Amino acid sequence: MKTNPAPSLRASPCPKGLSFGWGRLAARFSLMTAALIGAVVLSVAITVIRSQKGLLELESRERLDTVMDGVARIAQESIDASDELMLISYLKHLRRDRPELALAEVTRRGRTSTLGAPAPPTSSPMAGGTLSLQPRPRPAPRLITLTRTAVERVAVTYTVKTLPSGDQAPEVSVSSAGLNLKVPGDAVLTRTEERKPLAVVVRLGFLEDSIQSEISRRLEPMVRRIGAIAATFMALGWLGAFYLGKLLTNPISALTLAVGAVGRGKLDTTVAEDRGDEVGLLEHTFNEMTTRIKELVDQREDVLHTLTHELNTPLAGLKGYLELWGDRKLPPEAQAEVLGTMTAAVLRMEGSLGNALRLFKGPAGQGAGPRKVVWVDDVFTGVLAILAPVASSKKIAVHPLPSEASDFVVADEDTLRQVVSNLVSNAFKYTPEGGEVRLGLESGEGEVRFWVADTGRGIAPEDLPHIFTKFYRGSRPAEGSADPGQRIPGSGLGLSIAHKAVTSMGGSIRVESEPGKGSKFIISLPRVPAQTEARQETP
Ligand code: ADP
User: CATH classification of 294-526, choosing from 3.30.450.40, 3.30.565.10, 3.30.1490.20, 3.10.20.280?
Assistant: First the structure.
């Protein structure tokens, strides 16, 4: 039979109806993955920027502390030198150098000197109950205020009065650890300060906005760099996500297309099997499924064609004979012969239908009826009784089984009858008029052997290897045959069905044939099939 090479579907542009479905799946997968990648990259970028900002804030805080330490040192020096102006002029310089230093206050003996403007006074627009047209006052700038205190160094006098006991004198020693006084007895320590020390408190106010904008200025290039790296990662991630989405959905789209094609009747559709994962398994299963469906459909089509052909010819003959009979145009002496021919035609149609039905049911053995003890000689007798008119119409001498030849097998009776019927009807069909057909049966150990031999046209050696193949028909009568070149009708199913049935029963079928002399089909069957034995052994 002619078969077109099966088209194999790879991912290709989807037809209109399909593109939406698989495209949406790919897009959904890609978007979800891209969103995930975006969220991860963004959160990493934000964490890095936050930590960088924290570092910059710490750094600027340390710088302010350094400024404050310098101010404290100058304050101490100004106290030591009793030079109040020294501190004030230092602070003035500092304000000039550092624009962010908005306020400097020095408190000494309860008196506060202020450098720079403190927070501007807030004035109400409805001052005194009248509407003021003054511009809205600016909000007071936020300040970071830091304070340092310097204390005057004042001499302290310590007086020790000792009341020694016994004759031991107090001991004084000086070491790196300090002064050590050892008094044996009572002692009184008096501490006298020259005067109350002077404390100078310096409070500086730095503009928070200016410090923050300095931090932002230094942070900006870092943010840009981190942003660029994050954008690159995101772009790469999104590209990967879209590629992955397509990669995952491509085989699904190919399968969707293929399923659609099968649905439209293109049964020879297959998909490329190029993956080792679950989708690959699905592709493989799909291909197996379409191959099987194609086989079944082909087989049924073949059977239908063959059957139509098989039934048409005998039906036409039957119709012709019936018309002759109805018109009373058949001479009485020919009626017996015509009856035989008509019976043979009916039997042939019955045989063809039986074979076709068996084929439709599936492989031989499947769908077979229950197994039971079947007497092979009884089966032969039954088949011969049905086919006898065919033999007599061709004047074939039939040699049935000798009466002592009797044995049984455990099998499905209908299947066995079909096998025997196919062999006997073939023998009658391929044996010319006046020929002989001989049946035989032999009991072996655990098996039964039986055969159908004829003196017909025989089988050409080149046909012999193929005659059990479904739909195979012997091409021509064997050379030297007494039955020259006549094409005998048939379906090419009989022997293939017999072969499958016998094999499923655990037996074998073979043929011995000599062109022009005849053929002998020999079947060997186990008396009890292996499966049944196993079942019987189980209690
Ligand atoms: P069919 O008889 O319908 O063609 P079968 O499957 O029964 O189909 O037989 C296949 C072929 O084997 C036949 O076409 C014929 O060439 C050959 N064959 C079968 N039985 C015989 C026989 N008894 N003698 C000669 N040729 C036979």
Answer: 3.30.565.10
